[in-house]
Amino acid sequence: MFLASVALAQPEPEESAKAKHVDAKGAALMLKKDSKIVTLDIRTPEEFKSGHIKGAKNIDFRADTFESDIGKLDRSKTYLVHCASGGRSGRSLADFQKLKFKHIIHLDGGYRGWEKEGLPVVK
Fold it and tell me: Phi and psi of 29, rounded to 5°?
């Protein structure tokens, strides 16, 4: 008796996108062109209150609930993620990838880079 080995097709795992990196001017252009991009400021609430990009949503990277908080977001939307200078937001990219977010844009230079370029902020 001959038994053939049959490989069963496995569904492809859903891919999460690698983050796209932009500087402040590039981010400002993207936000101007696409009003659906969600700006996600992951600094502390105190930092956020001292000034932020208009329309930004604040989720504290340092909070114990950070991963569960971002897990509540719509993974199909596009997010522009930033912190003060890029360190925390850079480290957060692994969390977004782990949770299979599709469209993440990292603001290189963070909020400080945004301010340095003279771009508008809410105080």
Answer: -65, -45
Does any domain span residue 69?
Answer: yes
Tell me if 9 is assigned to some domain: no
CA distance 30 to 118: 16
Single-letter code of the amino acid located at 84: A
Report whether pLDDT(47) > 50. yes
Residue ranges making up the domain that contains 51: 20-116
Which tokens go with 76?
A: 């199909």
**Edge-to-edge, what's the strand order for the sheet holding 20-22?**
20-22, 103-107, 78-82, 38-41, 57-58
pLDDT, tens digit (0-9, with 9 covering 90-100), for 73-118: 999 999 999 999 999 999 999 999 999 999 999 999 999 999 999 9
Residue 32 inside a domain? The answer is yes
Count the domains in the chain. 1
SS3 24: helix
Return left, alpha or beta for 54; rule: phi > 0 is left, psi -120 to 50 is alpha, else beta. beta
The CATH number linked to 54 is: 3.40.250.10
